[in-house]
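Weekly modeling sync, notes
Attendees: S.R. (lead), two postdocs, one rotation student

Agenda item 3: backlog of single-chain predictions. S.R. asked that every request posted to the team notebook include the full sequence so nobody has to chase files. The rotation student volunteered to paste the first one in as an example of the format we agreed on. Action items at the bottom.

Example entry:
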Amino acid sequence: MAPPAHRLLQALDRFNAAHPWDHNAHYHRWILRQLPHRSGSALDTEPLKHRVR
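Predicted structure, as returned to the notebook:
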């Protein structure tokens, strides 16, 4: 029998594979609510994940 910590990590891996968590999607609405109402545009500073060469 696997140690409890190992079983827990396996269960967390399975859960995350089925329900991946994205911090950007999670906090998106909250961040938008923090912006001043007069904001007409914004600059996304996240680096490109797939660079074209």
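Discussion: group reviewed the output briefly. The mean pLDDT is 82.
Action items: rotation student to repeat for the remaining queue; S.R. to check formatting next week.
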